Amino acid sequence: MSNQTKDRLISTTKFAYGAAVGLFGMLVLKYPDCAIFHDVPENIPRIKGFPLIGSIIQEVANYEKYYGSQHEQFTKLNTLTMVTSAVGLPLTITTIDPKNIEHFLRVNFSNYVKSDHFRTSLKGLFGHSIVLSEGHRWAYHRKAAVRIFSTKRLEDYFAHVIVTELNVMVKKVLDNYALDGAIIDLQDLFLKYTMDSFVMIAFGKNLNTLTSKEVVPVSESFDKCVQHVFNMSTNPFTPIIDKFNNVFRGPQTKSINQHYDTLNDFAYTIIAERKDDLKNGHSFNDLLSVAMEQGNESGEEFSDEDLRDLIVSSIVAARDANAAALSWGLLCIIQHPEVQVKLLQEIENYLPENKNDQQQQPLLFYEILRLYPPATVNFRDALNDDVWPDGTKIRKGNTVSINLYAQARSPKVWGDDCNEFKPERWLQPDGRLRHESQAKWPIFNVSPRACIGQNLATLESITAIVTLVQRYKFSLVPNQNFEYSVSLVMAMKHGLKVHVQNREN
Ligand code: HEM
Question: Which annotated residues bind heme (predicted)?
Answer without folding.
Answer: 451
